[in-house]
UniProtKB/TrEMBL annotation:
Keyword Nucleotide-binding in annotation: no
GO molecular function ontology, one term from the record: transmembrane transporter activity
Record's protein name: ECF transporter S component
InterPro entries referenced in this protein's UniProt entry, alphabetically: ECF_trnsprt_substrate-spec
Metal-binding found in the keyword field: no
Regions that span the bilayer: 6-28, 40-61, 81-100, 107-129, 141-165
Domain of life per record: Bacteria
Keyword annotations of the record: Membrane, Transmembrane, Transmembrane helix
Length: 181
């Protein structure tokens, strides 16, 4: 199987996981557990690491869109979380894949950088949407709130994603020629 096909299949599987995982989390812990543990973010970040920046970007855009279409989550109203995530998650996939694959940055630094830029994008999206819809939300609180509310999920990602990527590297499951040191 060629590299492009492998990357497409990986992205498709990760998108499916990105739709399925939040539903499992909602069943186990109610609707708020997903917004606390951020399960949709994990497959998108992994797509960047495993399949590269382009597929990470696509998975980040398609996962919340398909999930919203199929399950109603993330919601479009009363707060348009879907649109925030359709900007945030592609940043995760793009930056994790770009820094890890193209710049050969350390996995942990790639992950932290992607998470920072993704959360900043989310926070900036809140500011933009609050101005468009004329919601009275203090700008500094929104960016900070985007980080603090997702802190348990951020910790889960910092623990889980490097572990999964290391296992895949040891098994030789990452794409050929990808991350050869």
């Amino acid at each position: 199987m060629n590299s492009r096909t492998r990357k497409m299949i990986t992205a498709a599987i990760m998108i499916a996981l990105g739709v399925l995982l939040p539903q499992i989390f909602h069943l186990i812990g109610g609707p708020n557990l997903g917004s606390i543990l951020l399960p949709m973010h994990i497959p998108v970040l992994l797509t960047g690491f495993i399949a590269g920046p382009l597929y990470g970007l696509l998975a980040g855009f398609l996962t919340p869109a398909l999930s919203s279409l199929l399950t109603g989550m993330p919601p479009i109203s009363p707060v348009p979380i879907l649109f925030l995530m359709m900007f945030e998650l592609p940043v995760y996939g793009l930056i994790s894949g770009y820094l890890f694959e193209k710049k050969r940055m350390n996995m942990f630094l790639s992950l932290i950088t992607a998470m920072l830029f993704g959360r900043l994008t989310y926070g900036l999206g809140i500011i933009v949407l609050s101005n468009i819809f004329m919601m009275n939300i203090p700008n500094g609180i929104t960016v900070w709130g985007a980080v603090v509310s997702g802190l348990p999920g951020i910790i889960l990602q910092i623990v889980l994603i490097p572990l999964i990527v290391q296992i895949l590297e040891k098994r030789g499951s990452l794409n050929e020629g990808y991350r050869k040191s």
